[in-house]
Amino acid sequence: MKYVGLQTQIWNNNIRSTILLIMFPLVILGLAWLFIYFTRPEHYTINDINYTFTGVAPWLIGGVLIWFLIAWYANTSIIRNATGAKQLERKENKKVYNLLENLCIATGMKMPKLNIIEDDSLNAFASGINQKNYTITLSRGIINKLNDDELEAVIAHELSHIRNKDVRLLIVSIIFVGIFAFLVEILLRSFFYSSMTRSRGRGSGKGRGAGMLIALALAIVGFIITSLFRFAISRKREYMADAGAAQLTKRPGSLASALEKISQNSRIEAVTRKDVAQLFIDNPKEQKKDLFSFFNGLFATHPPIEKRISVLRQF
Predict the structure, then answer these.
(1) Is residue 117 part of a domain?
(2) Residue 190 half-sphere exposure, CB side, CA atoms within 13 Å?
(3) Per-position pLDDT tens, the chain of length 315
(4) Structural domain contains residue 75
(5) What is the CA radius of gyration of the chain?
(6) Which residues are catalytic?
(7) Number of structural domains the chain divides into
């Protein structure tokens, strides 16, 4: 895969971030309109539906905005708590700091923070939304088990995510998909509770049950659509960061070698959240291969590591 250039990639990711910011609220509003349409009383006209929708829309947008702002500003602490990462002091490992510092000097970047996860597995990720909280996190295993060239290549990969604004793009997509996941869970619980109530004879509302089912179906559709969009972006960014690392270090073979080692033992035990797991250079929660590999590929956050290695070998 040809590397399209740093400024082009930054521009593309800024455009994608804007599209995401516009698309997700539009999907929510569109699904809300459809819900009103399918559950409307028989005498309702289109004008009645639109009037009801205009009353609901500001509350929906307000709720989404509040959710987004909370998640936006809390994402750093959420990720840190979910991974058990701690700051790596320079005196603890000068080699890692020197590798990162040299790469930052070569690219004219401000040096991000360095964190470490005390796990013997091999993995790493970049996070943050601006210069104040950009962070590269490495596992203890990846520091101890990779040689200097391989470790530098991994750091360059994560640094490329920061340079390309990938980390910000991914945070935006994770937040909005999380909203749909929450809606699906709430509606599922409400639907099952409503079904149990009706089966015990404590409720009458067949109409309410039908409305709940429609709302659930629409929320699931929205979740699938936004998830597919998020996963496609996530896979693309991994190829771009691989290419960026090859450009930075001039040694694509070093990253290929590092990925081979990482693929053998990338599971970080502390990581249980799937949204956080997709930040890593190799998703520790993702299934590798099975009979449904095609469908898994659509919902995969990372391209197959074998393909990434093959692309790097072609540089």
Answers:
(1) yes
(2) 15
(3) 454 554 665 566 567 666 766 777 787 788 788 778 877 777 888 898 889 889 988 888 888 888 878 877 888 888 888 888 999 989 889 999 999 999 999 989 999 999 999 999 999 999 988 888 899 999 999 999 999 999 999 999 999 999 888 888 777 777 777 777 776 667 666 666 656 665 555 554 455 556 667 767 777 777 777 777 667 666 777 888 888 898 899 999 999 999 999 989 888 877 777 777 788 898 876 655 544 444 455 556 678 888 888 888 887
(4) yes
(5) 23
(6) 158
(7) 1
Q: Does residue 182 sit within a domain?
A: yes
pTM for the complete prediction? 0.76
Show the tokens assigned to 139. 């596992």
Give the structural domain span for 36: 6-313
Within the chain, what is the greatest distance between any pair of CA atoms? 74
- In three state form, how does the secondary structure of the chain look? CCCCCHHHHHHHHHHHHHHHHHHHHHHHHHHHHHHHHHCCCCCCCHHHHHHHHHHHHHHHHHHHHHHHHHHHHHHHHHHHHHHCCEECCHHHCHHHHHHHHHHHHHHCCCCCEEEEECCCCCCEEEECCCCCCCEEEEEHHHHHHCCHHHHHHHHHHHHHHHHCCHHHHHHHHHHHHHHHHHHHHHHHHHHHHHHHHHHCCCCCCHHHHHHHHHHHHHHHHHHHHHHHHHHHHHHHHHHHHHHHHHHHHCCHHHHHHHHHHHHHCCCCCCCCCHHHHCCECCCCCCCCCCCCHHHHHHCCCCCCHHHHHHHHHCC
Please list, in sequence order, all residues whose beta carbon lies within 8 angstroms of the beta carbon of residue 199, skipping any fewer than 6 positions away.
Answer: none
Query: Is 125 within a domain?
Result: yes
